[in-house]
TrEMBL record:
The gene is nnrD. One of its GO terms (molecular function) is NAD(P)HX epimerase activity. It comes from Methanospirillum purgamenti. InterPro entries: CARKD, Nnr, Ribokinase-like, YjeF_N_dom, YjeF_N_dom_sf. (6S)-NADPHX binds at A250, G312, H353, D417. The keyword Protein biosynthesis does not apply. This is ADP-dependent (S)-NAD(P)H-hydrate dehydratase. It comes from the Archaea. In the C-terminal section; belongs to the NnrD/CARKD family. Binds 1 potassium ion per subunit. GO terms for biological process: metabolite repair; nicotinamide nucleotide metabolic process.
Amino acid sequence: MTIHMQHQPFPDDLTRYSEYACLDLITPEEMRRIDHNAQSLGISGLELMESAGTALSLVAQEYHAGIVLILCGSGNNGGDGLVAARHMSREAEVTVLWYDSGHQTRSTRRQLERLSHCDVRSIRFRCREDLLHHLDIFSKADLIVDALLGTGGAGTVREPLKTCIDLANQSQAPVLCADLPSPGIIPDRICAFHRPKVKDSEVYDIGIPILAEIGTGPGDLLLMQERKQNVHKGVGGEILVIGGGPYQGAPWLSGLAALRAGADIVRIVTPHYLPEPDLIHIPTSGDTITQNDLDTIIPLCDRSDVVLCGPGLGPDAHEVILTCSEHVKKGVFDADSLRTPLPHAHESLYTPHTGEFTRITGRDPGLTPYDRAHAVRNSDIPGTVLLKGPVDVISDTKRIRFNQTGTPAMTTGGTGDVLAGVCAALMVHLSAFDAACIGAYATGCAGEMITNTHGYGMTARDLIPAIPQVLFRRTLEGE
Ligand SMILES: NC(=O)C1=CN([C@@H]2O[C@H](COP(=O)(O)OP(=O)(O)OC[C@H]3O[C@@H](n4cnc5c(N)ncnc54)[C@H](OP(=O)(O)O)[C@@H]3O)[C@@H](O)[C@H]2O)[C@@H](O)CC1
Ligand SMILES: Nc1ncnc2c1ncn2[C@@H]1O[C@H](COP(=O)(O)OP(=O)(O)O)[C@@H](O)[C@H]1O
Ligand SMILES: [K+]
């Protein structure tokens, strides 16, 4: 799996950013994102696994058990157990029961090879019957380590792991769980890595940089869902862009960007027609958008998955936007729609740059990402905010995320319109927060790609074909 390496260091002292890290329970998807980002920051999956297995072995040794049975699945959770076995071989009589599903992860296969050079007894099981030959091991064990399933477990537990879990529960030995309890196992203690996934976990650090968590990275792209084969037209979503008037190009840039970010149908309500065959133009009655256009616009808001308001709109249409936003399920409010009173939809994403943020909150957000994050978190904006800048700050009042991708060449006009269009398309299937994080990350990566070829000669339009290369690279390379 080629991991896109992040290069530039964070332009601020990270020691005071720990307040922005999330300390309560995290989901397996969030842990996968952080894990992947850690690898893009130069810490390999094997190193993470070594740290996890070491922590696990230290907790296991607190039991002072003479006979230890380590149950290992075929995934990376199993890998943790194999690492722990290697670290405990001198401390106890260790037996590993490992499940050979036929497709062990590469890291876990590597750990099994390493273990073969240790004085540890390792027994393969492939089916329920294999386990029934080793009932004595379960009854003799003083400690059982559960490294069967971790954050990769999905659905009801399949055999032979189900039987393995039942046998562990039936034994007298306490069960120490790696990262989280395999479904149905009764834990004595839970040794969670980096962050707790379930309640009552003890949390052990495994050396994951804070930036892997509070920063965007290639791990964020894992949230993009693969499309099933039998999908129908429109699954990519229908987007409505309301904009234009004084600036006729902006809504078209947003519309094209939304298509390139995966939207299926994009309609542009704007006074000026531009010959873009991929976009559906909805003309307005005059050369700016007024109340007379509401009969046209409102039904389109009702039928669209996401509505993007603002690109190139000019200051006079705010009343229209306020009225439309009441018919909007998911709204992205950019540029001239960022005026008070703020429009808001059922779920809203606001994408101000510094000037627009100051205009809607009356407060200058400051220059450092730290201050800008404080300003965003303390603003009473009712939704997710993407405050754009050299480091974008994304917040949904609970979470904060920093996006470092992008280049100064992106200050060219219209890049904000492209970013807003990308966020609108992503919001069809993702939350406003995840759409903003991925939108900022992808648009910035596209900007870096184009800066490499066009330098300061980059135009916002150049960004658009680069967007799908970033967003869909994973599936293109079959990772
Ligand atoms: N770099 C890292 O990633 C790091 C990860 N770390 C550790 O890895 C853990 C995540 O590993 P994981 O074993 O939980 O998941 P993953 O490796 O995807 O394999 C899943 C396996 O389970 C199986 N399976 C799934 N559902 C099932 C079911 N219902 N019933 C039965 N089987 C089921 C699935 O089988 P398959 O679907 O392939 O047939 C596949 O074999 C994480 O919690 C942490 O402990 C740490 O070392 C830190 C570094
Ligand atoms: N100096 C910079 N370094 C990196 N990225 C930048 C820089 N300036 C702007 N950007 C990026 O350009 C994008 C659009 O910026 P914005 O100010 O919204 O442009 P516009 O004036 O078109 O709205 C944002 O994603 C932002 O991250
Ligand atoms: K486990």
